[in-house]
User: Fold this.
Amino acid sequence: MQDFRDKIAVITGGASGIGLGIARAIAGEGGHIVVADIDETAAKAAADDLTSRGVRSFSVRCDVRDDASVDAVFDAAKAEFGGVDLLFNNAGVYLGGEMKDCTLDDWRFVLDVNLDGVFRVGQRAAAFLRAQNEREAGRGGYIVNTASIGGFMSHGGGLAYAVSKYGVVAYSEAMRVDLEPNGIGVSTLCPGPIDTNLPASDRLRDSGETTGGMSEALSPFIRGGMAPDDIGPIVLSGIRRNLPYIFTHDDMRELFKARFDSVLDCIDRIGEPA
Assistant:
């Protein structure tokens, strides 16, 4: 996909952070946006901001943990715009703390949003785009699933987050292969530190439980990160080049090299005497 003018984008987690940064980039190129977010007030404010930029946009509440809520997003997009061209599968949460502090409730909360939610939205989008292509041959489509550099290398703390993002990478790789014959592109967005509201994810828990501020311990790392508005052009460039992975920080090269050198070294040592 090269031209975003008049394309219709659905963005989960679109009311703030990375999602809003992508939305503004799409709007800057003349695309129209469905802002899907669990925070209705913030979603409406984001849609109003995008509309003021001369494009069409509306907001819809979306809880990616709920099938009916996800279906409603695509139904609304079809009713308002007649179809969808791009999905940014971006809603996500973070809970920090050491492995010993991660409860089953913590684990379920993070994976239900970050992995099951990506699956739930991704499956709905894939079915929608396939059916749309049967009606409108050649329309194509594009899906960007948000993972993280944490989807390639774990770090101290954030156990459930790292596991969820590893899963998003694997899901996206499989999705890319499956959807290519349908003319639908798939990229995995792997951001480094971005200045977002991710450390405050506790606010979204149904139970009202928190991790005792452990998620906020991530704040200094995140708050010094890239501005969300800077990530949008990077993502659109990655789509234009149909990149399997879209990275945001080129200073991660040595970390990736060390990881994969370690993998290759272990392969080379197969059969080595103990």
About this structure: The mean pLDDT is 90. Strands lie at 8-12, 32-37, 57-61, 86-89, 141-146, 184-190, 245-247. Helices lie at 17-28, 40-51, 67-81, 104-135, 159-179, 219-223, 228-240, 253-268.
